[in-house]
């Protein structure tokens, strides 16, 4: 995931972020819109409304609009904990949902995990006062689509990203007990990564939620190839399920076959998202893998989304890595954070637990954006150039 800054000008601090802040937590939002992160932040920092947030995240990148040492008006609790002490994160494309929104959620979970590592917040704080939703701060039903589809599902993605970034063992979600069918009901297992729940038996009905856990569910009524869920949540298409009353066990989700971030590959097909099933002819026939999402239909993101997503069938050649970085600091260069480093460029104290480790430069500061610093990808933090080697 690319992380960039489009910071609010200081002339608007009195409107957008008038108070200094030492972050004590994170507040999660959905934009209720279908604009990109860049467009969301551009609008936020240029209008004169007393509404602001620190990051917007879409399916390609996270965009920072407010410095982390300033408050923002996003939680609806006046001068309460949410507005005055938490980092506001808006997840894009929630109005229509679908593949782009789910990819944005994954990036949002990664951003949250990186901030947790930066500020020393452990996974046990997910779902507590420290890391929670807009709804928990002031009662507003936000993040609306994330709540509709299950906030615990999203929290599990955050836990997974935290484990990946921190090098800890992957958390194992506790499986829910399988429901017992009765009468004409039967059990099915979901065999796709994202299955919409609708208000009725057909694609002409509204979407009310989405199942993403490949779990076991009880069907209590069938109409054609549609089944009604026992929970009352709605209807699902049975083409993307496998019956468990003697039916065959579904194949496991496809996993990446040995490709790696930084690999240059040649392709003959491309997709618009990690879960899309519509293969397109690529305008560009080669690119660099910049992200891998295990279990996705198309797990490899090329060139930070500028080319698209591909799977193993799309890759017809690869194995090479980009040319080594030139002298000096540059994007992609590996550097070690010195044990003598004291504070981030944003002023917060650097925890000793992340010193002495090697990180990847995500962005080199220039102009008004930390010209004396570099942004380290694994901890998503700006550090002084003099503090890395």
Strand content: 25-35%
Portion in helices: 10-25%
Overall pLDDT metric: 81
CATH architecture of the largest domain: 3-Layer(aba) Sandwich
Number of DSSP-assigned strands:
22
In short:
The protein is of the alpha+beta class and 389 residues long. The chain has helices spanning 13-16, 37-46, 81-85, 99-119, 134-138, 144-149, 151-166, and strands at 2-5, 25-30, 55-57, 61-64, 86-91, 131-133, 186-190, 195-198, 207-211, 216-223, 226-229, 235-237, 241-243, 264-267, 286-292, 300-302, 308-310, 315-320, 334-336, 358-366, 369-376, 381-384.
Topology readout:
Elements: E1 2-5, H1 13-16, E2 25-30, H2 37-46, E3 55-57, E4 61-64, H3 81-85, E5 86-91, H4 99-119, E6 131-133, H5 134-138, H6 144-149, H7 151-166, E7 186-190, E8 195-198, E9 207-211, E10 216-223, E11 226-229, E12 235-237, E13 241-243, E14 264-267, E15 286-292, E16 300-302, E17 308-310, E18 315-320, E19 334-336, E20 358-366, E21 369-376, E22 381-384
Attribute tags:
SH3 type barrels; 389 residues; 6-stranded mixed sheet; Lysozyme-like; 7 helices; 22 strands; 5-stranded antiparallel sheet; alpha+beta
Describe the structure.
With 389 residues, this protein is of the alpha+beta class. Helices cover 17% and strands 27% of the residues. It is built from 7 helices and 22 strands. The model is unreliable at 174-183, 247-257 and 321-327 (pLDDT under 50).
